[in-house]
Amino acid sequence: MTKLAPKVRPDISDWTATDLKSWREKHGFDQVQAAAAIGIGRQTWLKMETGKKAVDLVYYLACVGYDAGQGK
Length: 72
Known about the structure:
Helices cover 57% and strands 0% of the residues. It contains four helices and no strands. Helix 2 (31-38) crosses helix 3. The longest helix has 14 residues, at 57-70. The protein is globular.
């Protein structure tokens, strides 16, 4: 039986900076509004959207949760 390699960073989502920007644009948010919608600061959002920081799993889940709360 082949053993699967463990995920190197389980706290990092599969979302890219492009995915994050697409989510923001889908909602018509600027970066400040998008960050506020999921409860983070603009600088954190900016770092993730520009690819300087990986999209943390918790932030990805916050976006999914926001959509669920909005019925999207």
